[in-house]
Amino acid sequence: xxxxxxxxxxxxxxxxxxxxxxxxxxxxxxxxxxxxxxxxxxxxxxxxxxxxxxxxxxxxxxxxxxxxxxxxxxxxxxxxxxxxxxxxxxxxxxxxxxxxxxxxxxxxxxxxxxxxxxxxxxxxxxxxxxxxxxxxxxxxxxxxxxxxxxxxxxxxxxxxxxxxxxxxxxxxxxxxxxxxxxxxxxxxxxxxxxxxxxxxxxxxxxxxxxxxxxxxxxxxxxxxxxxxxxxxxxxxxxxxxxxxxxxxxxxxxxxxxxxxxxxxxxxxxxxxxxxxxxxxxxxxxxxxxxxxxxxxxxx
Amino acid sequence: xxxxxxxxxxxxxxxxxxxxxxxxxxxxxxxxxxxxxxxxxxxxxxxxxxxxxxxxxxxxxxxxxxxxxxxxxxxxxxxxxxxxxxxxxxxxxxxxxxxxxxxxxxxxxxxxxxxxxxxxxxxxxxxxxxxxxxxxxxxxxxxxxxxxxxxxxxxxxxxxxxxxxxxxxxxxxxxxxxxxxxxxxxxxxxxxxxxxxxxxxxxxxxxxxxxxxxxxxxxxxx
Lengths: 299, 222
Description:
By secondary structure, chain A is mainly alpha-helical.
């Protein structure tokens, strides 16, 4: 890859008059030796899985393995059809879709890790709702996934994308940055604006810990996906309006690394701290463990 | 760079809920299936660390059994893997291992048997659905599972490695990584060869015909 930083991306795009997604596809061709058609076809397949997960979450009964969560995406979607959501109709859709995909994940349905399974709702929430809203063809969104991938590639290689390594800022935070930057490109913003959107978004999730109840990708992960999709829309809007990330986006990624490295292990996916160890979090953990052991003795 | 390209960020397509506890677990199970080279009749799965703590809620148990049935990480039959195992005649035991020092928090050992053959695999799920294979049949192999891999069981004899590399190179396959491991001098040995593309049947047959070679398997879970 010719780029290591978001600044590299913005510079190459400016000098060679490329969009971020065009640059990502060119670099992917070089890295893997596969032709463009093959690479784009693979991504198109991924986008189909994302759309299918949105649909499945809205139309079927999603109940997580532990029984803790399920059906919230559908609730938000139904609410949005009878009342005007306070965040507006389209942010309400993005939120409902992101919740749905995360619930499909928790119920052992098929999803695309973007960048991880724990944060798999945000990119589809933003992409699928924006497609309906603006009437875009699938191909445009498939292109947009390359721009999300380029941003994620920089974050992953300069910081981290797993909760076990860097907390939830690394998972949900990265996904919000990826969705925000990609949305700027989809809506006709410049690569530079897209890069600012990433920095604006990431600053809002810095320090976010990974504290899943009973260690499961359910509470609070699913709700964070729903809220994350709304944040991505907001960060894209600020950047398109000309708001700049005063601390350059690459430096924000560096700060994510610094914070994640110092984060106590209790707050990095071990379920030994945070919400997982709240009074209710502990009670739910006990209940899930008890159900598990009775299942084992009866089986 | 830890992450090589766009599909290590967008992807894999997988059955939830956790890329490390579910998708990675499927792949470890599948390594055992492919090493055996056929549908196992019996399997013993031992879970360690975070796998042992949270396997039920993440479906790690279903994922490992699904892998033994040769399911891919996105196979929607994974939630029903136990019923499928029964239907296909796979008997399995699943148990937590003793809490000791395992090389990785998400670690599993699998022993699988069929038709008088037995194989064993030790593997870790290292995040994002990626795995690391620590050992095959008790040999310290240390391969990544990122690439199609040929696993060759052979005797520890002069010239075996040269005949393997010669055969592989004549087939036009580029070797990206390889490792030979033996249990004792002049005893049993295992060589693993990672390559950029899947080896064809002709090459595998040629390897099987080499002197002192006992078994050749292809592991491809990418």
